[in-house]
Amino acid sequence: MSGSEQYERVSVSSDGVTVDKRFEEDEFPVPAIAFEIQSSRSETVTVVIVDDVPEDVAVEDLGFHPEYGSEYWTIDEDQITFEREIEAGTEYTTVYGIRATGTEDVEKFLTEPRIESVDPPLEESDDTVIDEENSDVVRDVISGDSDAVPGLDDEESDDEDVETLDLKDPNDPSDDGAASGAAAVPAGDEDGDAASVESLVGALAAELRNGNVNEDDVKLLRKAFDIVDDGSGGSVDARIQRLQTEV
Is the pTM of this model over 0.90? Predict the structure, then answer.
């Protein structure tokens, strides 16, 4: 096992860009820390990566190779910054070398780098992004941990509140048509019929008093009512209703 293989690489990702940081002892002219930048974006992006320098290492002890993007690095006290455009679907490798004395404690260099920015950032599609809460609900229903989806119960309860009419089947011989017809008449209709009868009687009486009814009509009325006062207002009402239908 080479010196490089005994150290695990460190990976970070953001906005469709992945950075693998690793130690390479033999691949480059001097022991180096390599950054392999991969872009899965469909467009060119500008990537800014920031890496911290160990406290006991002076930035002057770090070297940047011109064949591996030295011009894209800047030094700022205890950290170094890499900024470069990365084309769509490509990868780029940049390195900085460390003095031989630094190889005695390589792990202090293998801290996690930070992807400071990716420009333009990756835009999430509204059609494909599902918020975490709703996705958890869907997973619970699929796995059987939940029997209901929030919101559906409310809709079902609303449907249950809708009143339905208990209508008889006209093709069912077991239904009593006469009884159904009688039961179907609302109380309000009966009140309306009584009011109609009273108004008609009042109108007839007024016409008779004023002498506006000819002899033939009076005879017709007498015949229709069969003037016999039996003390029952119901029979008179029934006759008046019959007269209404005939007139």
Answer: no
